[in-house]
Specification:
Elements (H helix, E strand, L loop, with lengths): L3 E2 L11 H5 L36 E4 L20 E4 L2 H7 L9 H15 L8 E6 L2 H12 L5 E6 L6 H5 L4 E8 L2 E2 L1 H9 L10 E4 L13 H14 L2 E5 L16 H4 L5 E2 L2 E6 L11 E6 H13 L6 H44 L4 E3 L7 E6 L7 H10 L5 E2 L12 E5 L5 H18 L4
Parallel strand pairs: 1-10, 5-6, 5-8, 8-9, 9-11
Antiparallel strand pairs: 2-3, 4-12, 6-7, 11-12, 13-14, 14-16, 15-16
Helix pairs in contact: 2-10, 3-10, 4-9, 6-7, 10-12, 11-12
InterPro entries: Aminotransferase_I/II_large (IPR004839), Class-I_PLP-dep_aminotransf (IPR050859), PyrdxlP-dep_Trfase (IPR015424), PyrdxlP-dep_Trfase_major (IPR015421)
Family: Belongs to the class-I pyridoxal-phosphate-dependent aminotransferase family.
Cofactor: pyridoxal 5'-phosphate
């Protein structure tokens, strides 16, 4: 099967009116010209670096390990620690304004990562990378770059609560796509699309979290992903692949390829806009995420960045690159395997407590990625909201009622519990308190 990479002009139909009106930054659009040999630039109002007080940066980090027991508090230097010193040239870039899409060295390293993990080459396929202040920053800009106020959108349900306002604030027409133990339901998606009113424009985007979905913890199966990609081609929409838990997969089966990877098997390539995050594997406070996708869509995202925060912090990008270069790709893979094993153990500890206290009181499916359990309360009625917000809190435990993850709101008996931070002792106490809450709601002693 021959592969057709969609041209940049194809994406004009997907861009919002706001994006089409937006003009490139008159200053930042000329930044690349400053690199012209023998050119004297009077362009940018950059501060003179000689006034910056920082003269060097170095830090200590753990060496990459697959042993989750070594990921806890260090308690002092270890033999496996690595010392990272930022090169003077890299530090100079890290202290100054830089390219909107990201510092070149980090973009290059991340491009190599995407080729190794997803089989996508940064040349000849019409895609590139932009770095953001966390992946949510990039998702927000992507939504505004593509979706006009009031337009219909496809959203898996339940879905990450932090993204719902991006669509509701635009007054979007929300079309929920069901999910189950295999992730997003291709049958539900097909039903929504095939019953679409004739003459009415169809949605331009589908939002989905395919690995360790927040809140359900489910991972989309290979068959589901392939069917969703087929529907994207047939009904002409962009898949917003939000994948912050990709490296937190601890299932025993072989890792399912990403949408970004699988679309290479499609007759046409370029309908996936992928979002990765380093928050769960390096540091949430670094605020480093990156988007990979069609160049025209990334340019639209960069246009928003150029007029909002100008760029992601050069310094955090430089520190991140310093560690990644020190580790190399093999070290990065080793570290992420250790992180996934760490959360797999956390999952097991939490489920042991659920088996101990919640059997018969709740129902759940064991997650194979991420940091959440999504469980159903076996109580009269269909709403966990009042039980969790009041009764559970009174019993000394806090969780999230499932209604906050429904795009259109409504009632649900489901609850989300995060297991990422608790010690085994606190897990036991928390789940025991949840069990008491459910028993109270059922009128049991």
């Amino acid at each position: 099967m021959s592969t057709n990479f969609l041209p940049a002009t194809y994406y004009e139909q997907f861009l919002s009116e706001q994006t089409l009106r937006r003009r490139p930054s008159p200053i930042r659009s000329l930044y690349p010209l400053e690199k012209t040999p023998n050119l004297i630039s009077l362009l940018a109002g950059k501060p003179n670096a000689s006034t910056f007080p920082f003269t060097s940066f170095s830090f200590t980090a753990r060496g990459p390990t697959e042993d989750p027991s070594l990921l806890g508090p260090a308690g002092g230097p270890r033999d496996t620690d690595v010392n990272v010193t930022i090169d003077p040239e890299d530090l100079a870039m890290g202290l100054q304004y830089t390219d909107t899409a990201g510092i070149p060295g980090l973009l290059s390293w991340l491009g190599g990562l995407q080729e190794k993990m997803h089989g996508r080459k940064t040349s000849g396929e019409g895609w590139r990378i932009s770095v953001g202040a966390g992946s949510q920053d990039l998702i927000y800009k992507a939504v505004n770059a593509i979706v006009d106020p009031g337009e219909p959108v496809l959203l898996e349900s339940p879905m990450y609560a932090g993204v719902i306002p991006m669509f509701t604030n635009l007054g979007c027409e929300l079309h929920e796509v069901e999910t189950d133990a295999e992730g997003i339901s291709a049958d539900s998606l097909r039903q929504v699309l095939e019953s679409w009113p004739q003459g009415k424009p169809k949605p331009k985007v589908l939002y989905t979290v395919p690995y360790g979905c927040n809140p359900t913890g489910m991972t989309a199966s290979l068959a589901r992903r392939k069917e969703v990609l087929k529907l994207a081609r047939e009904h002409n929409f962009i898949i917003l692949e939000d994948d912050p838990y990709y490296y937190l997969y601890y299932g025993t089966a072989e890792r399912v390829p990403s949408y970004f990877s699988l679309e290479l098997e499609q007759p046409e390539v370029g309908r996936v806009l992928r979002f990765d995050s380093l928050s769960k594997i390096l540091s949430a406070g670094l605020r480093i995420g990156f988007a990979s996708g069609p160049e025209r869509l990334l340019a639209a995202i960069d246009a928003y960045t150029g007029t909002s925060n100008l760029q992601t912090s050069s310094l955090t990008q430089t520190l991140t690159l310093g560690l990644l270069k020190k580790w190399g790709y093999d070290g990065f893979y080793t570290h992420t395997r250790g992180v996934s094993a760490f959360y797999g153990h956390k999952r097991d500890v939490f489920e042991q407590a659920m088996d101990k206290y919640l059997k018969g009181l709740c129902e759940w499916v064991r997650p194979e990625a991420g940091m959440f359990f999504w469980f159903k309360l076996n109580v009269p009625g269909e709403d966990s909201n009042a039980i969790i917000r009041s009764k559970a809190f009174e019993n000394g435990v806090l969780a999230l009622p499932g209604t906050v993850f429904l795009p259109k709101g409504g009632t649900t008996p489901y609850v989300r519990a995060a297991f990422s931070l608790l010690t085994p002792e606190d897990v036991d106490k928390a789940v025991e308190r949840l069990a008491k809450t459910v028993k109270d709601a059922r009128g049991e002693q």
